[in-house]
């Protein structure tokens, strides 16, 4: 070997260009910073908390995001009316509001919030009740171009839903106490349209002949000789004169009065019999309804905000009045959710209109202004997001940290390794494979805490064999939940006996328990033979490793206890979601995390045709119970009604509960005031780094 | 030479055009919906979003609009990371990937070429076998195995070296070393092959017969032609390595370009994928042109043809 050593010297004779590139590169290796302190040690001195935050935030506009990782940042930047207690669930501390109380004792339908006159935006401008009114109007904007995912969080406000969904009839007629017919009766007329028929879905298909399934939807409008021209019906500008009478009938009834424009309303006024009114709505009232709507359209108002009288009023600069759709004794819990946070009116309007969505630059680091304990300092895509202490914050002396650094670590194995190398104070999670290792190596640092969330299977109740409740129940009872929790997940998860995790004073009905014998019996009762004759069904899941392991466990359990072989279909995230919205699945694994501490956050999604229902299931009884609970102020009675509602859904089993979530994460001992909280929303203003 | 440049440029334009055309239709054929999210999207919202991004128009119209916008320097908005321009995403992440890629390319050359030369000189001896075992290992052991091994065995014991991140100057080291192995391995094999080929040539035998020292034969006569296969490989390798690697970026938390490729496809972010493909195609064209020019510089026969 020795004779070749001079060869290395020859390398130095390479052309200068080459040399000029290679030597700086080598030199940079030699002179790498020799900082011997770990990241955490440096951060402790700077009083900055470093936390793993899973991924790049989709945005920072509290009205447009819907994820947990965005919420972790937004809760540091913004502040709602009330603030979480650092150690106790269901306790509210003053935030932007100093004090609050329902105006009429125990009724809880009208609340007054007295805002803190000292509260300021990070540019020094006071936070006023007008900011809140503006924010709620913004989030509820009915414009289809306004892509807010979480507007329904504000449906607690009186008329919030009617305004957001542009329910013209309800707002223009139902809100008027002098209207000759009460809204309760009037609403039976077709305002919202026949939800079964979406003309757009038929527009691009050539239905020379409708198949049976689709024909059903139109049956009530058709006589035997009728044919429908869907192209004409779903055209952007429908030419009413060119339609046959049955086509007109389909058009008006599928759209509903609320969605008709001025010309269509005028046409309908001439021929009101084309719409299916109920008998209780007399002809004179029909004309009156149409007149009101036409008059509104003629006035050329862009939207219904003023007429809607949504229950948010800025009484004066520092008094906010909220009128609710019913008694909401837990309102302060809800105001902690980021959708109820204020956005700075003066800054939002400086960078766009009220509901300019993603093209607005108000959330960019150079523009954003916030009212929370921290303000945005740095935001680099896929790299780092850092917030620093907000000097204008009203309670700045309580805030101990000088900043928080969020790292978008999507690889959780790397995250655990970084924690071990003293690069992080708190991790986002611990992957289930590493939990045994973490238990051994970091017994003091590992936290396993209950988290209000449920893992479950959606069932497509529109297709065979799952249109049969007995089959659904059999599949639910054949899931050995305990072994999934203990053998696969190992993160302290609890077998789920229902869809609402246990918390507070709520008593879950607790119906679903692993019972293979009963499962077999139910399957036999259902009329389906197990094994060969059972229809071919598939289980939809995401393309993650953990998703596959879970699906394989479920597959094995159904095979073992029911003798049914289920195929596993893995799809990447967006396809996985789309298949659920399209009802293109049989069984599908999914999860749901509570937004606030009340059972309704888990129950309301199951109303008929709810945006996140996707099972095709619906029950009048269930919805009546929810409405009843909505109008009940007494907490124990209300919880009883909600428990009954959960029982209704579990009895019918359109969802198969698997387990209740826990959070598993690592946290360094010097981080103080970070206590177990059911929603895992730790108020950063109280967090301390002990030196 | 001018002819070479011209033909390369024309080729690049055609290839990039075909590439973008193919990818344009291919990404739209991927199942899934760019606007699907964990909260349901109503049909009205979906329609509004499609209209906003121009996805409601017929495919052919969308296609021509895309070229029209590109001609005006507009790569469009990212569909998944809303409110961010594709051009911003590329211009933020490319410098990171370029820096990392260049360092690992030089490291790869520094290891691979000498390894190949040694292997060729000791043809069929243990040195050759050892070098080739290392090279094969470099090709076979993938980054998602190497990365964690390095994290646990190198950076854990060293206090000044972080496991992952992109804040300290030293943070570039581990990802660069992980990336350089693949390059080094290919270069070692190509250099060895080239070297063996050249060493059996008549003019080398003549030089040996004249009594020229081995070292001088290698540096003066053999190295330049022996490196030609390696240089051909370096062109595309250069373009590939400076556009980032998903695996390495994911393991080492590097804010580079590689993850945009993968996440762009999985989230059906048409504009991002197309922008990246266009950018990558052009880079590849430039890299190939540079390697052609280097070959011409190295081989007098090519210069005259």
Quickly describe the structure.
Chain A is α+β, with helices and mostly antiparallel strands. Helices cover 34% and strands 15% of the residues of chain A. The relative contact order of chain A is 0.13.
Tell me the fraction of residues in β-strands of chain B, as a range: under 5%
- Categorize the overall geometry of chain A: globular
Q: Helical residue percent of chain B?
A: over 70%
Structural class of chain B: mainly alpha
User: At the fourth CATH level, what is the homologous superfamily of the domain at 95-257 in chain B?
Assistant: MetI-like
What gyration radius of chain B follows from the Cα positions, in whole Å? 24 Å
The CATH architecture assignment of the domain at 95-257 in chain B turns out to be Orthogonal Bundle
The number of helical segments of chain A is 27
> Could you tell me how far the N terminus lies from the C terminus of chain B, measured between alpha carbons in angstroms?
9 Å
> β content of chain A, as a range?
5-15%
Strand order of the largest sheet of chain A: 12-16-11-15-13-14
Number of strands of chain B: 0
Biggest interface, CB < 8 A: A-B, 70 and 67 residues
> Which stretches of chain A are poorly predicted, pLDDT < 50 over at least 5 residues?
1-21
- CA-atom Rg of chain A in angstroms: 29 Å
Portion in helices of chain A: 25-40%
Mind telling me the CATH class of the domain at 95-257 in chain B? Mainly Alpha
CATH topology of the domain at 95-257 in chain B: MetI-like fold
């Amino acid at each position: 070997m020795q004779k070749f050593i001079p060869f290395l010297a020859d390398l130095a004779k390479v052309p200068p260009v080459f040399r000029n590139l290679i030597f700086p590169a080598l030199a940079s290796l030699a002179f790498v910073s020799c900082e011997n302190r770990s990241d955490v040690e440096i951060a402790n001195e700077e009083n900055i908390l470093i936390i793993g935050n899973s991924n790049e935030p989709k945005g920072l506009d509290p009205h447009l995001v819907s994820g947990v990782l965005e919420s972790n940042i937004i809760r540091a930047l913004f502040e709602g009316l009330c603030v979480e207690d650092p150690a106790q669930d269901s306790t509210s501390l003053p935030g932007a509001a100093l004090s609050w109380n329902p105006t009429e004792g125990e009724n809880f339908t009208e609340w007054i919030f007295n805002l803190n006159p000292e509260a300021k935006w990070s540019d020094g401008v006071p936070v006023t009740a007008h900011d809140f009114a503006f924010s709620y109007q913004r989030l509820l904007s009915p414009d289809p171009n306004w892509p807010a995912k979480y507007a329904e969080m504000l449906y607690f406000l009186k008329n919030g839903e009617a305004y957001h969904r542009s329910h013209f009839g309800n707002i223009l007629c139902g809100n008027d106490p002098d209207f000759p017919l009460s809204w309760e009766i009037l609403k039976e007329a077709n305002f919202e349209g026949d939800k079964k028929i979406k003309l757009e879905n038929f527009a691009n298909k050539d239905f020379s002949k409708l198949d049976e399934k689709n024909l059903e939807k139109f049956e009530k409008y058709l006589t035997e000789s009728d044919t429908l021209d869907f192209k004409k019906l779903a055209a952007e500008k429908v030419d009413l004169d060119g339609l046959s009478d049955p086509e007109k009938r389909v058009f008006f009834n599928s759209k509903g009065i609320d969605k008709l424009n001025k010309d269509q309303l005028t046409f309908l006024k001439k021929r009101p019999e084309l719409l299916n009114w109920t008998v209780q709505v007399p002809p004179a009232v029909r004309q009156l309804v149409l007149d009101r709507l036409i008059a509104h359209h003629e006035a050329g108002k862009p939207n219904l905000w003023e007429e809607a009288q949504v229950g948010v009023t800025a009484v004066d600069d520092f008094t906010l009045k909220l009128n609710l759709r019913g008694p909401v004794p837990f309102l302060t819990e809800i105001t902690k959710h980021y959708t109820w946070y204020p956005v700075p009116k003066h800054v939002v309007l400086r960078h766009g209109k009220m509901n300019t969505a993603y093209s607005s630059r108000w959330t960019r680091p150079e523009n954003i202004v916030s009212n929370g304990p921290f303000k945005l300092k740095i935001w680099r895509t896929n790299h780092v997001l850092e917030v620093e202490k907000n000097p204008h914050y009203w309670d700045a002396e309580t805030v101990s940290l000088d900043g928080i650094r969020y790292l978008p670590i999507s690889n959780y194995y790397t995250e655990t390794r970084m924690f071990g190398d003293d690069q992080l104070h708190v991790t986002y999670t611990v992957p289930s494979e590493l939990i045994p290792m973490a238990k051994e190596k970091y017994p003091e640092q590992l936290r396993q805490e209950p988290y209000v969330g449920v893992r479950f299977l959606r069932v497509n109740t529109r297709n065979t064999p799952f249109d049969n409740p007995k089959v659904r129940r059999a599949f639910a009872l054949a899931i050995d939940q305990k072994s999934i929790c203990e053998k696969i997940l190992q993160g302290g998860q609890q077998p789920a006996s229902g869809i609402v995790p246990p918390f507070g004073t709520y008593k879950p009905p607790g119906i679903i328990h692993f019972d293979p014998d009963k499962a077999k019996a139910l399957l036999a009762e259902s009329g389906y033979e197990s094994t060969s004759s059972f229809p071919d069904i598939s289980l939809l899941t995401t393309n993650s490793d953990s998703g596959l392991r879970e699906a394989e466990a479920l597959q094995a359990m159904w095979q073992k206890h029911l003798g049914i072989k289920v195929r596993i279909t893995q799809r990447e995230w967006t396809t996985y979601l789309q298949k659920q919205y399209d009802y293109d699945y049989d069984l599908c694994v999914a999860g749901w995390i509570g937004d606030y501490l009340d059972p309704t956050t888990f129950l309301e999604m199951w109303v008929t045709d709810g945006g996140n229902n996707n099972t095709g299931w619906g029950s009048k009884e269930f919805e009546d119970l929810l409405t009843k609970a909505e109008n009940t102020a007494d907490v124990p009675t209300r919880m009883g009604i909600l428990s009954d509602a959960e029982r209704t859904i579990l009895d019918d089993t359109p969802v198969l509960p698997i387990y209740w979530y826990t959070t598993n994460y690592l946290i360094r001992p010097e981080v103080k005031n970070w206590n177990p909280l059911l929603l895992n929303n730790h108020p950063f203003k109280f967090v301390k780094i002990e030196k | 030479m001018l002819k070479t440049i011209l033909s390369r440029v024309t080729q690049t334009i055609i290839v990039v055009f075909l590439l973008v055309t193919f990818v344009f239709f291919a990404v739209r054929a991927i199942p899934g919906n760019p606007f699907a999210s964990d909260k349901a999207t109503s049909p009205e919202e979906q329609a509004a979003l499609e209209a906003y991004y121009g996805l409601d128009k017929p495919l052919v119209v969308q296609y021509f609009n895309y070229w029209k916008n590109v001609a005006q320097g507009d790569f469009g908005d990212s569909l998944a990371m809303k409110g961010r321009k594709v051009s911003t995403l590329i211009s933020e992440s490319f410098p990171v990937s370029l820096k990392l890629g260049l360092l690992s390319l030089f490291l790869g050359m520094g290891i691979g070429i000498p390894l190949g030369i040694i292997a060729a000189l000791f043809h069929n001896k243990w040195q050759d076998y050892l070098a080739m075992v290392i090279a094969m290992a470099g090709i076979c052991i993938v980054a998602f195995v190497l990365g964690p091994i390095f994290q646990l065995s190198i950076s854990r014991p060293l206090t000044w070296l972080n496991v992952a991140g992109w804040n300290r100057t030293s943070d570039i080291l581990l990802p660069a070393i992980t990336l350089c192995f693949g390059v080094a391995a290919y270069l070692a094999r190509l250099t060895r092959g080239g070297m063996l080929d050249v060493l059996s040539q008549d003019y080398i035998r003549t030089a040996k017969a004249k009594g020229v020292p081995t070292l001088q034969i290698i540096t003066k006569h053999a190295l330049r032609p022996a490196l030609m296969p390696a240089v051909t490989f370096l062109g595309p390798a250069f373009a590939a390595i400076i556009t980032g690697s998903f695996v390495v970026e994911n393991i080492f938390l590097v804010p580079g370009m590689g993850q945009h490729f993968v996440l762009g496809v999985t989230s059906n972010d048409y504009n991002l994928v197309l922008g990246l493909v266009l950018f990558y195609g052009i880079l590849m064209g430039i890299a190939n042109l540079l390697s052609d020019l280097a070959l011409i510089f190295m081989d007098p026969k090519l210069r005259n043809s």
